[in-house]
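Q: I'm building a small set of examples for a reading group on sequence design. Run inverse folding on the following structure and report the sequence directly after it, with nothing in between.
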């Protein structure tokens, strides 16, 4: 439940007691972003290489899917590439042959036309007609050979694309951590057949740890993104963790979207996230735990100093 602190600091600090009985906005625990490690393709889970509570780093292999079928597909696709390349070589050789034949036919036709123009008695009209037809046939065969060469070239590209597709699926069959964090849940065991999108692990992103608060409209309007905040955990009241405001909801919750009276406006509640700096989390990564209840302090007057009991005190201090 949110309430201004009394005494010297009244109106400057807003205290949210996490887990207070009957609190209508008691979001009581420290949280972290959760990421599901899931399969992109359906298949049998071969192995899981991390367990609940394990720390993982970005890129670490967390599991593998059975890829026997994909390996077979890859070999078949690579064989089609080799076959298409051999056909391409044959088609290229045929094109060279057809071009040579076409050039020869054109020379013969040119010679016949020259001789026919000089003296029609030297060469007959029939011979000229045959040379014209031969040149036309040679050109058509050359064009057909070039078309076949282009077709085989396209087949090579298709076969190479198939190889790349299978390789991508093989790579996707290796499940890796998207970032540093801790395994929260193990959701599948080796040997299970999973659908596409089947969840294997849930990872807590310990670089994004926060508390969620709900403040009345009047106080929420005085909170700026990036403003300083403090978190004190129930389990370690002697520590004061520095934090900052990372999010202020653009819309109110728990009340109608449109209100007309001041009384109704004062009932508007805005969700706010108080986030611990990733650099600080990294320094104490092994000690970071979510689900821990505590108290979050939000400073409403950014010109005021924090009181002594809220000065930063970290585990190493």
């Amino acid at each position: 439940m949110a309430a201004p602190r009394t005494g010297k600091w009244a109106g400057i600090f807003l205290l949210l007691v996490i887990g207070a009985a009957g609190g209508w906005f008691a979001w009581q625990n420290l949280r972290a972003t959760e990421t599901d490690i899931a399969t992109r393709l359906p298949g049998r889970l071969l192995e899981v290489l991390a367990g609940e509570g394990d720390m993982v780093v970005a890129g670490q292999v967390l599991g593998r899917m059975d890829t026997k079928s994909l390996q077979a597909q890859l070999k078949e696709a690579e064989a089609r590439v080799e076959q298409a390349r051999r056909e391409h070589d044959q088609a290229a050789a045929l094109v060279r042959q057809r071009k040579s034949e076409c050039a020869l036919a054109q020379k013969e036709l040119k010679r016949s036309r020259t001789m026919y123009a000089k003296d029609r008695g030297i060469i007959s009209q029939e011979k000229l007609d045959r040379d014209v037809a031969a040149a036309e046939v040679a050109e058509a065969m050359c064009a057909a050979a070039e078309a076949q060469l282009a077709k085989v070239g396209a087949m090579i590209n298709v076969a190479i694309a198939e190889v790349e597709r299978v390789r991508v699926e093989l790579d996707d069959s290796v499940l890796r951590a998207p970032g540093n964090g801790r395994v929260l849940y193990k959701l599948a065991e080796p040997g299970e057949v999973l659908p596409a999108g089947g969840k294997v692990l849930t990872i807590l992103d310990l670089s994004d740890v926060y508390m969620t608060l709900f403040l009345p409209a009047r106080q929420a309007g005085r909170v700026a993104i990036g403003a300083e905040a403090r978190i004190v955990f129930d389990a370690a009241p002697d520590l004061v963790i520095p934090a900052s405001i990372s999010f202020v909801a653009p819309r109110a919750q728990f009340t109608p979207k449109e209100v007309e009276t001041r009384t109704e406006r004062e009932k508007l509640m805005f969700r706010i996230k108080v986030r611990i700096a990733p650099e600080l989390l990294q320094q104490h990564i092994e000690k970071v735990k979510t689900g821990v209840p505590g108290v979050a302090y939000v400073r409403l007057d950014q010109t005021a100093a924090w009181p002594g009991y809220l000065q930063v005190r970290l585990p190493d201090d």
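Helices lie at 68-118, 125-172, 217-220, 262-266, 278-283.
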